[in-house]
Amino acid sequence: MELEIYKYLHDQSDFFDVAEKMSKASSLMPYELLKESMQCKNESDIEKRKGLIEELYTKIKDEILRLKRNQYDSITSKSSDGVTSIENFMKSKLAPFVYPLMPTFCNLVLLLLTIYFIFLMSESTITQQILYISVVMAVVIYGTLMISMVSLVIIKKRFNNSWLNWMLFFLFVLSPLSLFEGPWYRGIIAIVLIIAYGFYAAKKSIKKSIP
């Protein structure tokens, strides 16, 4: 529409073409611009109409510049104030690539763990078998919960920002490290803690969805 008005003001187009562009863009225009465009179309005096269109053209250019200034820069991950946001970077650059790959990655890890688990079960004591089973279960539960948390925190932005919630979330992210060292029942402890965090996150860390 802006280009068609420019052509009209330089006698390269007629008013009917401009009016057609206005009608097509009416659903996208702010109320004030829509109101002024209707005034232009309703004005019968040619000179007054051209003056109204010139005013409308100036306001349309200002609106385009305003929208561009406030537009999120998806290339540089910068907001309107020019500061790179970690949240914007994660949503624009990491989430579209990492999140779709997470289920595949988790399935691959689970497959490797299952093969390793079968190998270990063939030559182990009862306590070692309990350890292996509990560790595999802990990893499966952790992976499932992690996929859900990544979706809710990064994609859907339903995380309640608080010091306690973020601290517990990072502890949850690092929780698999506890599976490498400790008593034979460490896998059972990890399962209990991961499930407990899942219940806590559902109650305290995640905002309720708006229907």
Automatic annotation (TrEMBL):
TM spans (from-to): 97-119, 131-155, 162-178, 184-202
Alphabetical keyword list: Membrane, Transmembrane, Transmembrane helix
Superkingdom of the source? Bacteria
Q: Which protein are we looking at?
A: Uncharacterized protein
